[in-house]
TrEMBL record:
Start and end residues of each TAP-C domain: 281-336
Annotated segments matching region Disordered: 1-23
GO biological process: poly(A)+ mRNA export from nucleus
GO cellular component assignments: nucleus
Comp. bias regions, Basic residues: 1-14
Name of this chain's protein: Nuclear RNA export factor 1
CDD domains in alphabetical order: UBA_TAP-C
InterPro entries: LRR_dom_sf, NXF1/2/3/5-like_LRR, NXF_fam, TAP_C_dom, UBA-like_sf
Pfam families in UniProt: LRR_NXF1-5, TAP_C
GO molecular function per UniProt: RNA binding
Length: 336
């Protein structure tokens, strides 16, 4: 007799991010860090159909909600490429049931389950969802963008999107460059990032990016991955919580000598930098810094600082207030 099926009512999905090193019990099936599981069905019978395969699987399981179903395997892993059928489930219990099916139950079919993330196609609808999620996290006053735990955004209640997938990260970077080219602060914490190559050329797209946080990701080759940011005028960088060697701080300081804050710790100037440190408080430096951060020319930057008694923080707050309200004329941004 087959196992009775439960009612296939909609149940809200849990998007928790468990420890990837734990396992579900049987065999070597790990808990997916994103909560999604890839299910690959292999068949020796050329007469099999998608409907026929799912009919058999649903008879053998209590509940099965398959997502992103397609014929064939996935190309991001060699052992997944030869499957007859691929689909995904967003439920650890469903994944375990499928993983535990025996060859006696499956007959000529073979089912393999792993914790690899869905390989998403950037359809127009999906791209628009990414845009909505990114824009909802933008603070135009501070020119900051917080993409922490992006895969848990409310936009993805029933879908998958993770910055750890290069195609998703590239799409996000393109949206940021288009919608917020004057971005100064970017936070990418807790996204399981390992590959930063999609950021190549970011200095042309986000030339004013100065503060970058990559805390609690999966970076293990510090300078190699961070080379994509080498032309940015970074003054603050957070790499804490990554699998980096103890010597990474020295290497980072050598690569970005202008850094003032590293891993949430304020840096003291090195001996050869102390001679010029007094210049950082000079009025010329403040004018130059305001030009770089706001895009205003030197004449307007100097005037704004004078009005605010050369208080840089107050000047910057005033700029973003007036800029947001459209009260700064275009000539303030024209070359003097």
């Amino acid at each position: 007799m087959s196992t009775p099926r439960r009612s296939r009512k909609f149940h809200p999905r849990c998007h928790s991010t468990p420890n990837p090193e734990r396992s579900l019990g049987r065999g070597s099936l790990p808990i997916s860090v994103f909560g999604w599981y890839r299910v690959l069905v292999f068949s020796r019978d050329h007469r099999d159909t998608i409907c026929g395969v799912f009919h058999r699987l649903r008879r053998l399981t209590h509940s099965l909600t398959a997502r992103y179903t397609h014929l064939g395997g996935e190309t991001d892993a060699m052992e997944d490429a030869g499957a007859f059928l691929t689909f995904y489930v967003n439920d650890a219990t469903e994944a375990r049931e499928l993983h535990c099916l025996s060859s006696c139950q499956l007959g000529h079919l073979k089912v393999r389950v792993n914790g690899r993330m869905p390989w998403m196609r950037l359809t127009p609808w999906y791209s628009q969802s990414i845009r909505s999620a990114v824009l909802s996290r933008h603070d135009p006053i501070r020119q900051s963008l917080d993409l922490t735990l992006f895969h848990l955004d409310p936009e993805w209640r029933n879908d998958f999107c993770a910055l750890a997938q290069p195609s998703c990260l590239r799409a996000v970077i393109a949206i940021v460059a288009e919608e917020m080219p004057h971005l100064v602060h970017l936070r990418l914490d807790k996204n399981y990032l390992r590959n930063l190559r999609p950021f190549f050329g970011v200095e042309r797209r986000l030339p004013r990016l100065q503060c970058l946080s990559l805390a609690n990701n999966e970076l293990d080759d510090c300078l190699s991955e961070l080379q994509v940011f080498r032309f940015l005028p970074l003054i603050e960088l957070n790499l804490s919580g990554n699998r980096l060697p103890p010597s990474h701080e020295r290497s980072v300081r050598n690569e970005w000598p202008r850094l003032r804050i590293l891993n949430n710790i304020e840096l003291y100037p090195r001996p050869h930098q102390r001679i010029s440190s007094s210049l950082h408080n000079s009025r010329g430096y403040l004018v130059s810094r305001l030009c770089q951060e706001t895009g205003m020319n030197a004449h307007w930057s100097r005037g704004a600082l004078e009005v605010n008694d050369w208080n840089y923080s107050r000047t910057l707050r005033a700029f973003w207030t007036f800029h947001t309200n459209g009260q700064i004329p275009q000539k303030a941004f024209d070359s003097a």
